[in-house]
Input
Amino acid sequence: MKMSVAEFRAWPHKRITLLGMSGVGKTWLSSLLRTQDWFHYSADYRIGKRYLDEPILDLVKQQAMQVPFLRDLLRRDWIDIKNNIKIDDLGPVLTFVGKLGDPSRGGLPLAEFSRRQALYRAAEIAAMHDVPEFVKKAQEIYGYAHFVNDAAGSLCELEDPGVIDLLVEHTLILYVQVTTAAEEAELIRRAQSDPKPLYFRPAFLASHIPRYLKERDLTDIEQADPDDFTRWIFPYLFRARQPRYEAIARPYGYTVTSAEVSCVRDERDFLELLENAIDRSGD
Output
């Protein structure tokens, strides 16, 4: 969705999709706006609560059934297990997606990791297809004036043009870009110390596993320390996503920097940020 500054100002019910890596401030910004008459649609929350809820619970129950005491309680339906995901705590999804590597160190074999990756991708696509419905719900049921779609960092990886077309039709896309080496280093540091669920395109994963094995002098990815592999691959993932984000934002949306987002303190600042992004785009 493209518009002039005047059209944006006159837009009575603003609908924004935030695009960018996890850690650039999308959820922080969405949470801020939620206190000021904006409906916060969290893609990761929707993924975990609606589309991966059953697989997450199946995984937990599978582990619980290995404990005789819990197995008996579950089979008699005497206990219930709940996926208690929160917008600011994606632990259940993170646990389900898992890490690739040595199973004895908490990793997943490649086949199982790939299966869960496919489920995660399908869940994210489904969550994005729910955006128009939640735009309507936000206004008609909950009475919010505006809507912000806090998209997952892997939106650019889905290779499903229909998702982008849908978001462009119903929302204005705002790409939060990392522009300096210092910001990039900090983003990578935070991602490695406080990981979020990650989706890897199969082709990307296939091209980087051999490189990792060669650097670590390993013969199979199931020999890898899962934490080490995740730390190693994230910078490559970050840099591979940059042109993909730009390929969405350039024709379909607008771009701001993570430094600009960090200066937003209220709705007025956010709207001014958007107006500046629209104005400097030349559209």
Observations:
- The longest strand covers residues 172-177.
- Residues 226-252 form the longest helix (27 residues).
